[in-house]
């Protein structure tokens, strides 16, 4: 009896062990199937990146809109990114902030380097393995990506517009902004070269100003006291042009037929139909383009093929089509 009972006991133990082993295998398969069904496998894991944004301090509505749209885009990306936005008043401060972002562990930096002297620090960041996408400004750095409007074409469109309105001869004040680097250089280059080609007898008078309405007002008020006859003003910025128009109004001048601009300022658009004596024009250079710069940074980090330079075409806005570009939600 004892031997028989022992035999039954051994059989029972063996059956339990086999059941346990079989149950373990079924549980493993179920776990794998659940992982596959839920999409939690490593192949589907979304990358998480640290994105730094460097912009100038807000001294200009367009710059404020750039910072606004950049932050809006990284917020739209949600949990895919951590981000920091730094603003600076000069190249030295921006360089320090660039170093801070590198220490933070930024995978990519979207930079708007408005000042000279950013070439070396940006090159150092790229050499350390950080993806850098420059917004707007062109600098001589190997490996940097860039997103910008077509600055040179803005000048070309400005020249064509002025000739269309005043003819091939006249006095044109050219307001350049040397402190803006390549932006002013390219817009002025496109304008002057095109004017030399299509209206070689046009008299161009060049003066320096800044991208603010206060400078546009003060500088153009001085110009008006020294230049008796002006047919058109080639201004490369909407906010500067607002100041120019104020100076014209305060001086009571009626000789000026055209004032150009650039950017995409809602207030400037709304002025276009208000003055029938002056053709007010803007070469659209929307601050919303900075969202493309953020997206390109993400694309590069994801290993996608990206062109080093993305240039967004120019659109001319004046009283005939300004309503198409009004946006009550725009911060600029």
UniProtKB/TrEMBL annotation:
One MF annotation (Gene Ontology) recorded for this entry: carbohydrate binding
Source domain of life is Bacteria
Q: Which Pfam families match?
A: Peripla_BP_4
Tell me which positions the record assigns to the signal sequence: 1-19
- Kindly list the places in or outside the cell where this protein is found, as annotated in its UniProt entry: Cell envelope
Principal localisation: other
| Chain positions covered by the region annotation Disordered | 27-47
| Annotated SUPFAM superfamilies | Periplasmic binding protein-like I
Which intervals of the chain form a coiled coil?
A: none
> What InterPro entries does the entry give?
Peripla_BP_I (IPR028082), SBP_2_dom (IPR025997)
CDD domains, sorted? PBP1_ABC_sugar_binding-like
Listed A to Z, the keywords are: Signal
Q: Mind telling me which Gene3D superfamilies this protein's record contains?
A: 3.40.50.2300
Domain Periplasmic binding protein as annotated: residue spans: 51-304
Annotated Gene Ontology cellular component terms: cell envelope
Q: Which PROSITE patterns match?
A: PROKAR_LIPOPROTEIN
The record's listing under PANTHER family reads: D-ALLOSE-BINDING PERIPLASMIC PROTEIN-RELATED
The family annotation for this protein states:
Belongs to the bacterial solute-binding protein 2 family.
The protein's name: D-allose-binding periplasmic protein
The coding gene here is: alsB
């Amino acid at each position: 009896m004892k031997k028989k009972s022992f035999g039954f006991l051994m059989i029972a133990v063996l059956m339990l062990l086999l059941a346990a082993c079989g149950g373990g295998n079924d549980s493993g398969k179920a776990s794998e199937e659940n992982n596959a069904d839920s999409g939690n496998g490593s192949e589907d894991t979304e990358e998480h990146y640290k994105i730094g944004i460097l912009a100038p301090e807000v001294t200009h509505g367009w710059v404020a809109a750039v910072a606004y749209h950049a932050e809006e885009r990284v917020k739209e990306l949600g949990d895919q990114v951590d981000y920091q936005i730094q603003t600076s008043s000069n190249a030295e401060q921006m360089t320090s902030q660039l170093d801070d972002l590198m220490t933070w562990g930024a995978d990519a930096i979207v930079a708007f380097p408005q000042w000279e002297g950013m070439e070396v620090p940006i090159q150092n960041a790229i050499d350390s393995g950080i993806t850098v996408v420059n917004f707007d400004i062109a600098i001589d750095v190997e490996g940097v990506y860039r997103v910008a409007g077509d600055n040179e074409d803005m000048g070309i469109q400005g020249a064509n517009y002025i000739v269309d309105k005043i003819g091939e001869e006249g006095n044109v004040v050219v307001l350049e902004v040397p402190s803006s680097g390549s932006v002013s250089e390219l817009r002025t280059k496109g304008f002057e070269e095109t004017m030399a080609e299509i209206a070689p007898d046009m008299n161009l008078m060049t003066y320096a100003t800044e991208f603010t309405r206060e400078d546009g007002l003060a500088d153009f008020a001085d110009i008006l006291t020294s230049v008796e006859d002006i047919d058109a003003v080639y201004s490369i910025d909407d906010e500067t042009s607002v100041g120019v128009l104020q100076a014209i109004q305060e001086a009571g001048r009626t000789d000026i037929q055209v004032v150009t601009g650039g950017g995409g300022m809602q207030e400037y658009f709304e002025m276009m139909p208000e003055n029938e004596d002056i053709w007010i024009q803007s070469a659209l250079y929307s601050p919303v383009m900075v969202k493309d710069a953020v997206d390109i940074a993400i694309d590069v980090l994801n290993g996608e093929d990206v062109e080093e330079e993305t240039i967004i075409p120019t659109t001319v806005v004046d009283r005939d089509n300004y309503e198409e570009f009004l946006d009550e939600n725009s911060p600029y």
